[in-house]
Write a structure and sequence with these properties.
The structure holds two protein chains of two kinds.
Chain A lengths: L2 E4 L3 E2 L4 E8 L21 E8 L2 E7 L9 E7 L4 E9 L3 E11 L1
Parallel strand pairs in A: 2-8
Antiparallel strand pairs in A: 1-3, 3-6, 4-5, 4-7, 7-8
Chain B lengths: L1 H13 L22 H8 L6 H12 L10 H5 L2 H4 L9 E3 L4 E3 L1 H13 L9 H12 L15 H12 L9 H5 L6 E2 L2 E2 L10 E3 L4 E3 L1 H11 L10 H13 L10 E2 L1
Parallel strand pairs in B: 5-7
Antiparallel strand pairs in B: 1-2, 3-4, 5-6
Helix pairs in contact in B: 3-7, 6-7, 8-11
Classes of the chains: A mainly beta, B mainly alpha.
């Protein structure tokens, strides 16, 4: 699924940087019913992780009360040039990944 | 109050073309100006604007070959950044073959059936919204000029009549709120001028992108009227009138609204 990631392309070593992620997902709560009364099954993202050059730096568990197309923002310290890898895992075997490079000087 | 009403009545009596309550061009304001700072920030930053997810999907669809003709949109129209710039600002536009105006969604579906020999996409389907968001996004910042074509004039007038027409159990016309009472509040929410500058737009209440037709239909349900069907001539005429009413305002697609 489409994802929008905002990581600065360049940063100074030791600088605190903000990472913003937005991904496409309906986040169906599992509490709603159709007009005919049938329960709409739950379909949400349950977990998000961010790895910085292979090391996990941020993880979040997501729950039914979170809006569609979840937006997450967090901070980290720019240590080395390399790659941020993002992974969203959810119901019905949902899995989506994205990655962004950063240049630390 | 009575004094102003008398002037308004006198004006409408003497100059029927100049309707009381219609918003003068210099006072036209996008729904953006009625929003709080958080929602504005969300729209302004392309990495926090959820509408951009649909634009990305639309970009992928633009280049995808489909239908029996195995044509992609890009095969005929090339790079949308150039070919589609300003197009959405002119829609709904007159279609010579049909002899009536068509919306951007309808144009995309006409292209699908005529040139790609593919099945039309259902209204409000993710793919149709994504494609029309991608096309309209190319017009971001372009001033709206829809309704300038003399051929669509009668349809603009039809749309204006519908806009002024009271309907539903609450017996309200669009103009009762959006011409006469904008800047006030309905329950907690600000009443806007109803300028359709950012469609298809991401509405936080919907938690998804939606078309102007969806927005119009939910207003009609709100006044407890029977909403017109998607793609009906009435909705197209209303959409056309609203776009011509927003003449000169810049396109914002994909906008974010509460």
């Amino acid at each position: 699924m489409a994802a929008l990631i905002n990581v600065p392309a360049k940063a100074k070593r030791g600088e605190i940087i903000e990472i913003r992620t937005l991904t496409s997902h309906i986040m169906e709560t599992g509490f709603r019913h159709t007009a005919a009364g049938a329960l709409v099954p739950r379909d949400i993202i349950t977990s998000f992780t961010c790895r910085y050059n292979g090391t996990e730096i941020f993880r979040a568990d997501l729950f039914p009360a979170i809006a569609a197309n979840p937006y997450l923002s967090f901070f980290t310290v720019a240590k080395d040039s390399g790659k941020f890898e993002f992974e969203w895992i959810g119901d019905n075997g949902y899995s989506s990944t994205a990655s962004v490079s950063i240049l630390v000087e | 109050m009575r004094f102003w009403r008398a002037i308004a009545v006198a004006l409408t009596a003497t100059v029927p073309a100049l309707l009381a309550g219609e918003i003068p061009p210099e006072a036209r304001r996008s729904g953006y100006s009625f929003m709080g700072p958080d929602t504005r920030a969300m729209q302004d930053d392309d990495t926090s604007n959820p509408g951009m997810l649909f634009v990305l999907d639309g970009e992928a669809l633009w280049g995808k070959k489909t239908g029996r003709a195995q044509n992609s949109c890009a095969d005929c129209h090339g790079d949308a950044r150039g070919s589609m710039k300003g197009v959405a600002a002119r829609y709904p536009a007159f279609d010579k073959a049909l002899g009536r105006p068509v919306t951007l969604d309808q144009r995309i579906n006409l292209c699908r059936s005529n040139h790609q020999q593919a099945t039309p996409l259902p209204y409000e389907s993710r793919d149709l919204l994504a494609l029309s968001a991608f096309v309209a996004h190319q017009s971001r910042g372009v001033p709206i000029t829809a309704g300038d074509d003399p051929q669509v004039r009668p349809f603009v007038d039809q749309g204006r009549d519908l806009f002024m027409q009271r309907e539903g159990q609450l017996n309200l016309a669009c103009s009762n709120c959006h011409d006469d009472n904008f800047d006030k509040r309905l329950a907690g929410a600000p009443i806007t001028q109803g300028q359709p500058t950012g469609y298809p737009l991401y509405r936080l209440e919907w938690q998804t992108l939606g078309s102007l037709e969806r927005r119009l239909r939910s207003c009609m349900t709100g006044v407890r009227a029977q909403a017109y069907d998607y793609g009906s001539p009435e909705l197209v005429a209303l959409e056309l009138y609203l776009m011509s009413r927003a003449r000169g305002l810049p396109m914002e697609t994909p906008a974010v609204r509460p």
